[in-house]
Amino acid sequence: MSHLIVLFNLKAGKNRADYENWARTNDLPSVNSLKSVDSCKILRSTGLMGSAVSAPFQYIEVIEINSNDGLFVDFDGPIMQKITEQFNEFADSPIFIMAAALV
Q: pLDDT digits over 17-47, tens only?
């Protein structure tokens, strides 16, 4: 199984409540409906373990993928094109990491 991990902060001036509402009502249902995706979760970081320092990223999105090729096909569709455009209005320079489970 593969994973797509997205690390990002909100753009300056973007409201956390607005983003989180959009994520719950648009992003998560859309991504979780894709045939190539087994599950998608969005996590809000709360800090670094054992430290008072803020985490370098406000949000972590973890997508479990059952087909890498299928994911690219799914993301080329009109629904995900719209979701991607909307995501890019909120996210400031997101980092997309492809990862594979060790076991």
A: 999 999 999 999 999 999 999 999 999 999 9
What tokens does 1 get? Answer: 């199984």
Long-range contacts of the stretch 77-84 (C-beta < 8 A, 24+): 79/30, 80/30, 80/31, 80/34, 83/26, 83/27, 83/30, 83/31
In 3D space, the residue among 27, 36, 42 whose CA is nearest the CA of residue 1 turns out to be 36
Q: What is the predicted pLDDT for the residue at 4?
A: 97
Where exactly are the structural domains of the chain? Answer: 2-100
CATH-assigned architecture of domain 2-100: 2-Layer Sandwich (3.30)
C-alpha dist (Å) from residue 1 to 39, 61, 66, 99, 102? 11, 16, 6, 9, 9
* Other beta carbons within 10 Å of 71: 21
